[in-house]
Amino acid sequence: MTGFRHRHHMANPPRHGRALWSALKRNLPAYVGRRRRVVRRPMKPRYFINPEATAKRMWDLLLIGLVLYTTLVVPYRVCFQIEASGGFSVLESAMDVAFFIDIVFNFITGLQLPTGEVSYNFRVIVKAYLRGWFTVDFFSTLPFESLSKLFGVSNNAHAALLSAKLLRGLKVLRLFKLARIRRLGKVFANLEDAVYTNQSLVSLAKLALTMLFIAHLVACLWYAVGKSDSEESWLISISLDPVGIGSDTSMLQYIRSVYWAIVTMTTIGYGDIVAHSNNERLLNIGVMAVGVSFFGYVI
């Protein structure tokens, strides 16, 4: 009996040891930890710009401010034929230089791929930019006012200037869809969450600002169309000087234009300022269509 117990005791340890080793192998990753996955990011070349760098984001914010200035001031200057003077002339010349520098930066800024990685392949970056916004950026940066003065062209050559500014305006409208604007929107969203801002009030404020921005562009266009009609125009019908000599007269015309734009977009139409030419009627129809579409989208 004693021998049987001894043999049974000697037979169990190997079997028990194999079971313990099998359990240890199954749970070994839990004891020593799994191998960490290392994500390798491409090294940034020396003369390239990281699109996620703080300096690049600050530069983008500066350009956003310049674009907003261009959006508000340039339509007013072009449509009302008001030349920049003094400090404003220096500022707008510096803005053209800044936009030209941004073109150079776009050729050496890393390209963000759909996978989230950043490509610093120069050929890929150049090809993507040339197929994208290079043409618009280039023509909107040309200093037509300086060139007209340099070659002795009259400063009233607003047709060429208007073409360039319209291209820049197209870029402005499309900039709000770019990634850097969305990143700025995320920053504002974080700030709104931090101060517990009512989201409904924020949405209402954004809609109001959008409407005022559209009204500003429509007002400038309404004045330009009225001024181009020499025989019949809304300017003559309300006894406003179509020539617009003096800042007070220009401001009065702008106020009347904004007033017409808002009452037309909201389809109120008091009837005190009405279209008199076919061009003004066509613009009136287009503005009412835009206003109805805008408020229909909001509702």
TrEMBL record:
According to the entry, every stretch annotated as the Ion transport domain falls at: 57-295
In terms of SUPFAM superfamilies, this protein maps to: Voltage-gated potassium channels
The identity of this protein, by name, is Voltage-gated Ion Channel (VIC) Superfamily
**What Pfam families would the database entry show?**
Ion_trans (PF00520)
- Membrane-crossing ranges are 58-77, 97-113, 207-225, 257-275, 282-298
Q: Which GO terms describe its molecular function?
A: voltage-gated potassium channel activity
GO cellular component labels: membrane
Organism whose genome encodes this protein: Phytophthora palmivora
Instruction: Give the membrane topology.
Output: Multi-pass membrane protein
Principal location listed in the UniProt entry: membrane
Q: Where in the cell is it found?
A: Membrane
